[in-house]
Amino acid sequence: MAMTSMKFHVAVTEEALKALNAHRKAERDREHEWIAARRRELIVPGMSRRAAAAIRRDIRAQVARMRRSGEFGGTRDDIVTRAVRQELRARGLDRKWPKPPEGAVDAPGRPWGTPPSAPMGEGGYTHRVSVNLPYNLGDTVRRAAYWTSKTAVEALQEWADRWGDGVDVALREAERDGIPAELALASAAGRPSAPQAALEIRDRLRAQILTTGDLIRASVERATGASQPEIPDGA
């Protein structure tokens, strides 16, 4: 049986989550008010139960159509789904992408080469939001992030072969791979220190990496009318 949705768990700021939930509540209230007004208008005293039930059914069908068209926001997933489509179009990423190599988009955590995200609860991302996207759209998000970032990731891998990633990254990767911390520290200490020019190159490459979380966070901001992050050239 084909999968119908793809779930994403995305770290967000408290402000972003509050804005999304407030937007969802406002849309839900607007929808309920519209339904109540239509019922008051169409269901009159003395009408048969069968006729009233038919009107209620027609109103529900109208609401479903208005959700699909975007006249009503719908559920939180509906709101973010619509915004993801808009975000992909705005970035020129709404197209067919080749399938990434097997396993390339299935690894847990952030893509190779990206700097660690702001720690949860330390002034950065303090909350998480779970979003279910239609499977094909979720797949497009994953493929777009992979192929958009591919060149920068490969350049960062070459950078790391030359300069290493530093002690913090070495320890995280050692823990993930089951390597003793002492060996990771010894390996990191044996590498030459990267000069400032090399560090600036690394930062520029990191800035070119696009993650699925980046896309969905930008979509949440788009849906709630928050200020939009700059879209990198060529993204």
Mind summarizing the main beta sheet?
2 strands, antiparallel
Computed structural class: mainly alpha
| Shape, principal axes of CA atoms | elongated
- What is the C-alpha radius of gyration, as a whole number of Å? 24 Å
Number of contiguous helices: 8
The end-to-end span amounts to 34 Å
> Could you estimate the helical fraction of the residues in percent?
55-70%
- Spans of 5+ residues with little confidence (pLDDT < 50)? 227-235
Strand-residue proportion: 5-15%
Kindly describe this structure:
This protein has 235 residues and is mainly alpha-helical. Helix content is 59%, strand content 7%. It contains eight helices and two strands. It has helices at 14-42, 49-69, 76-90, 135-163, 167-177, 181-189, 196-207, 212-224, and strands at 5-12, 127-134. A two-stranded antiparallel sheet has the order 1-2. The two termini are 34 Å apart. Mean pLDDT is 83; it is low at 227-235.
Topology readout:
Blueprint: E1 5-12, H1 14-42, H2 49-69, H3 76-90, E2 127-134, H4 135-163, H5 167-177, H6 181-189, H7 196-207, H8 212-224
Antiparallel strand pairs: 1-2
Can I get a quick summary?
The chain has 235 residues and is mainly alpha-helical.
